[in-house]
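Bug #2210: C-alpha coordinate dump truncated for DUF1697 domain-containing protein?
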Amino acid sequence: MTRYVALLRGINVGGNRKVRMADLRALLSGLGHTEVATLLQSGNAVFTAPERPAAAIGADIEARIAAELGLTVTVMVRTAADLRRVVEGLPFEVRDPAKCAVSFLNMPVDRDRLAAVDHAAFAPEELVPGERELYMYFPDGLGRAKMPAVLGRHLAAPGTVRNWNTVTRLLALAEGADHHPPTG
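Reproduced locally. Full output below:
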Protein backbone atom coordinates (compact mmCIF):
# COMPACT_ATOMS: atom_id res chain seq x y z
CA MET A 1 0.00 0.00 0.00
CA THR A 2 1.17 3.50 -0.86
CA ARG A 3 0.34 6.92 0.54
CA TYR A 4 -0.81 9.39 -2.11
CA VAL A 5 -1.57 13.09 -2.21
CA ALA A 6 -4.28 14.37 -4.56
CA LEU A 7 -4.31 18.06 -5.52
CA LEU A 8 -7.50 19.25 -7.19
CA ARG A 9 -7.17 22.21 -9.53
CA GLY A 10 -9.47 25.21 -9.37
CA ILE A 11 -12.09 24.16 -6.83
CA ASN A 12 -13.58 26.37 -4.11
CA VAL A 13 -11.99 29.50 -5.60
CA GLY A 14 -14.10 32.63 -5.49
CA GLY A 15 -17.23 30.67 -4.62
CA ASN A 16 -17.07 28.65 -7.84
CA ARG A 17 -16.79 24.90 -8.46
CA LYS A 18 -17.63 24.06 -4.86
CA VAL A 19 -16.57 20.70 -3.52
CA ARG A 20 -17.12 19.98 0.17
CA MET A 21 -14.16 18.19 1.72
CA ALA A 22 -16.52 15.67 3.33
CA ASP A 23 -17.76 14.85 -0.19
CA LEU A 24 -14.18 14.52 -1.44
CA ARG A 25 -13.31 12.16 1.43
CA ALA A 26 -16.42 10.07 0.70
CA LEU A 27 -15.61 10.01 -3.01
CA LEU A 28 -12.04 8.80 -2.35
CA SER A 29 -13.30 6.19 0.10
CA GLY A 30 -15.81 5.10 -2.54
CA LEU A 31 -12.90 4.42 -4.89
CA GLY A 32 -11.52 2.00 -2.28
CA HIS A 33 -8.91 4.34 -0.85
CA THR A 34 -8.33 4.18 2.89
CA GLU A 35 -6.99 6.46 5.61
CA VAL A 36 -8.43 9.43 3.72
CA ALA A 37 -7.83 12.93 5.09
CA THR A 38 -8.23 16.39 3.59
CA LEU A 39 -6.38 19.59 4.33
CA LEU A 40 -7.96 23.03 4.03
CA GLN A 41 -10.84 23.70 1.62
CA SER A 42 -8.77 23.96 -1.55
CA GLY A 43 -8.80 20.35 -2.72
CA ASN A 44 -5.94 18.66 -0.92
CA ALA A 45 -6.37 15.02 0.06
CA VAL A 46 -4.11 12.30 1.39
CA PHE A 47 -5.01 8.61 1.21
CA THR A 48 -3.67 5.07 1.06
CA ALA A 49 -4.18 2.83 -1.98
CA PRO A 50 -2.56 -0.11 -3.73
CA GLU A 51 0.43 1.07 -5.73
CA ARG A 52 -0.54 2.18 -9.24
CA PRO A 53 0.62 4.90 -11.60
CA ALA A 54 -0.31 8.30 -10.14
CA ALA A 55 -1.81 9.40 -13.46
CA ALA A 56 -4.23 6.45 -13.41
CA ILE A 57 -5.31 7.25 -9.86
CA GLY A 58 -5.80 10.90 -10.84
CA ALA A 59 -7.88 9.89 -13.88
CA ASP A 60 -10.09 7.69 -11.66
CA ILE A 61 -10.65 10.58 -9.24
CA GLU A 62 -11.44 12.96 -12.11
CA ALA A 63 -13.98 10.49 -13.55
CA ARG A 64 -15.64 9.98 -10.18
CA ILE A 65 -15.86 13.74 -9.57
CA ALA A 66 -17.47 14.18 -12.99
CA ALA A 67 -19.93 11.34 -12.39
CA GLU A 68 -20.87 12.19 -8.80
CA LEU A 69 -20.46 15.97 -8.63
CA GLY A 70 -20.89 16.98 -12.28
CA LEU A 71 -17.61 18.89 -12.34
CA THR A 72 -14.64 18.67 -14.66
CA VAL A 73 -11.61 18.92 -12.39
CA THR A 74 -7.96 18.23 -13.13
CA VAL A 75 -6.32 16.18 -10.37
CA MET A 76 -2.57 15.96 -9.83
CA VAL A 77 -1.51 12.92 -7.78
CA ARG A 78 1.84 12.38 -6.10
CA THR A 79 3.10 9.67 -3.80
CA ALA A 80 4.33 10.69 -0.37
CA ALA A 81 7.84 9.89 -1.67
CA ASP A 82 7.29 12.24 -4.65
CA LEU A 83 6.19 14.99 -2.29
CA ARG A 84 9.26 14.36 -0.09
CA ARG A 85 11.43 14.79 -3.24
CA VAL A 86 9.68 18.09 -4.03
CA VAL A 87 10.26 19.42 -0.51
CA GLU A 88 13.89 18.31 -0.40
CA GLY A 89 14.48 19.73 -3.90
CA LEU A 90 13.46 23.29 -3.07
CA PRO A 91 16.12 25.28 -4.97
CA PHE A 92 16.06 28.42 -2.84
CA GLU A 93 15.72 29.48 0.77
CA VAL A 94 12.21 29.87 2.13
CA ARG A 95 12.21 33.49 3.21
CA ASP A 96 8.48 33.53 3.87
CA PRO A 97 6.52 30.27 3.51
CA ALA A 98 3.34 32.14 2.54
CA LYS A 99 5.19 33.69 -0.45
CA CYS A 100 6.92 30.50 -1.57
CA ALA A 101 4.83 28.13 -3.71
CA VAL A 102 4.96 25.05 -5.88
CA SER A 103 2.95 24.56 -9.05
CA PHE A 104 2.29 20.84 -9.46
CA LEU A 105 1.96 19.83 -13.12
CA ASN A 106 0.40 16.69 -14.55
CA MET A 107 3.38 16.06 -16.84
CA PRO A 108 7.13 16.80 -16.86
CA VAL A 109 8.14 20.44 -17.19
CA ASP A 110 8.53 21.40 -20.84
CA ARG A 111 11.82 23.25 -20.53
CA ASP A 112 11.74 24.46 -24.15
CA ARG A 113 8.38 26.16 -23.65
CA LEU A 114 9.54 27.52 -20.30
CA ALA A 115 12.66 28.97 -21.93
CA ALA A 116 10.40 30.99 -24.23
CA VAL A 117 8.86 32.79 -21.23
CA ASP A 118 10.13 36.33 -20.67
CA HIS A 119 11.21 36.06 -17.05
CA ALA A 120 11.63 39.84 -16.87
CA ALA A 121 7.86 40.11 -17.30
CA PHE A 122 7.35 38.89 -13.74
CA ALA A 123 10.54 40.08 -11.97
CA PRO A 124 11.31 40.13 -9.04
CA GLU A 125 9.28 36.95 -8.77
CA GLU A 126 11.37 33.79 -9.03
CA LEU A 127 10.78 30.58 -10.96
CA VAL A 128 12.86 27.40 -10.95
CA PRO A 129 11.71 24.27 -12.79
CA GLY A 130 11.73 20.87 -11.13
CA GLU A 131 10.67 17.53 -12.62
CA ARG A 132 6.86 17.86 -12.68
CA GLU A 133 6.71 21.03 -10.64
CA LEU A 134 7.68 24.66 -10.72
CA TYR A 135 9.14 26.28 -7.64
CA MET A 136 8.08 29.92 -7.27
CA TYR A 137 8.70 32.82 -4.94
CA PHE A 138 6.38 35.83 -4.85
CA PRO A 139 7.97 38.69 -2.84
CA ASP A 140 4.71 40.69 -2.97
CA GLY A 141 2.49 37.67 -2.21
CA LEU A 142 0.54 35.28 -4.40
CA GLY A 143 -2.44 37.64 -4.64
CA ARG A 144 -0.33 40.24 -6.46
CA ALA A 145 1.78 37.81 -8.48
CA LYS A 146 2.20 38.36 -12.22
CA MET A 147 3.85 35.01 -12.90
CA PRO A 148 0.81 32.65 -12.85
CA ALA A 149 -0.92 34.54 -15.69
CA VAL A 150 2.28 34.65 -17.74
CA LEU A 151 2.94 30.94 -17.23
CA GLY A 152 -0.65 29.98 -17.97
CA ARG A 153 -0.25 31.31 -21.50
CA HIS A 154 3.03 29.47 -22.12
CA LEU A 155 2.82 26.04 -20.54
CA ALA A 156 0.90 23.18 -22.10
CA ALA A 157 0.54 21.29 -18.82
CA PRO A 158 -2.21 22.19 -16.40
CA GLY A 159 -0.98 22.85 -12.91
CA THR A 160 -2.20 23.73 -9.48
CA VAL A 161 -0.36 25.98 -7.06
CA ARG A 162 0.07 25.37 -3.33
CA ASN A 163 1.98 27.63 -0.96
CA TRP A 164 4.90 26.23 0.99
CA ASN A 165 2.93 25.97 4.24
CA THR A 166 0.37 23.74 2.51
CA VAL A 167 3.03 21.64 0.77
CA THR A 168 4.86 20.90 4.02
CA ARG A 169 1.61 20.24 5.92
CA LEU A 170 0.54 17.77 3.20
CA LEU A 171 3.90 16.02 3.45
CA ALA A 172 3.56 15.74 7.23
CA LEU A 173 0.04 14.35 6.81
CA ALA A 174 1.19 11.88 4.13
CA GLU A 175 4.17 10.68 6.17
CA GLY A 176 2.56 10.85 9.60
CA ALA A 177 2.03 7.76 11.67
CA ASP A 178 -1.58 8.78 12.38
CA HIS A 179 -3.29 9.09 9.00
CA HIS A 180 -6.81 9.28 10.32
CA PRO A 181 -7.92 12.80 11.27
CA PRO A 182 -9.84 14.44 8.45
CA THR A 183 -9.54 18.20 8.47
CA GLY A 184 -11.15 20.95 6.44
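Output looks complete on our side. Residues 177-184 have pLDDT under 50 and may be disordered. Marking as cannot-reproduce; reopen if the truncation happens again.
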